[in-house]
Amino acid sequence: MGRGTICEPLATAKAPAGRNPTPAAQKAHPLNSLTPIVDASSGGKEPATGRAGWRGTGSVLVVEDDAAVRTLVARALPKFGFTASTAGNGNEALKQLKADPASYVLVLLDIKLPGMTPAEVVRRIRLIRADLPVIVMTGFDRDKALETLAGTAISGYIHKPFTLNGLASEIRIALGG
Predict the structure, then answer these.
(1) Could you report the per-residue pLDDT of 100-114, keeping only the tens digit for each?
(2) The CATH fold of domain 59-174
(3) Of 16, 57, 6, 10, nearest to 30 (Cα)?
(4) What is the distance between the alpha carbons of residues 174 and 106, in angstroms, rounded to a whole number?
(5) How far apart are CA 160 and CA 171, in angstroms?
(6) Hey, CA dihedral for 9, 60, 161, 38, is it positive or negative?
(7) pLDDT of 120-153, one tens digit each?
């Protein structure tokens, strides 16, 4: 973690009232690396975005089968100026996208979804709206992810676990900001 940044473990933030998780439980929590990183000079109020003052606009479709990750990413997006819609699988995502394709500026797509390969989801997104940027989120390394998505056009890649700063930076790049 860089100098001047603060990261609060998600396990601490989500602990039931009156219960504090042990340091081992905090460290082991799979979402700790997804918690907001904030610039200490801001008093801990705003997440770092990777570029001072950058904010986006529009709606992002978050496609992730893990409800905790999906919720966390969706809750973070407004901090960067976006609204969020969520889907737990490819079919849900495609249904939402078909209903109002012009309302989305970006899709964040988990690479491992039930019921449909990620390549198929991307191909179908392209049939609905060819210009819509798609960033894949995955625990796989970049080469494995690209192999899984061979022949599809994606706009970015982010490795899980990731920081919100990293996510904002990848979104900014995909949107040309």
Answers:
(1) 999 999 999 999 999
(2) Rossmann fold (3.40.50)
(3) 10
(4) 8
(5) 15
(6) negative
(7) 999 999 999 999 999 999 988 888 887 888 878 8
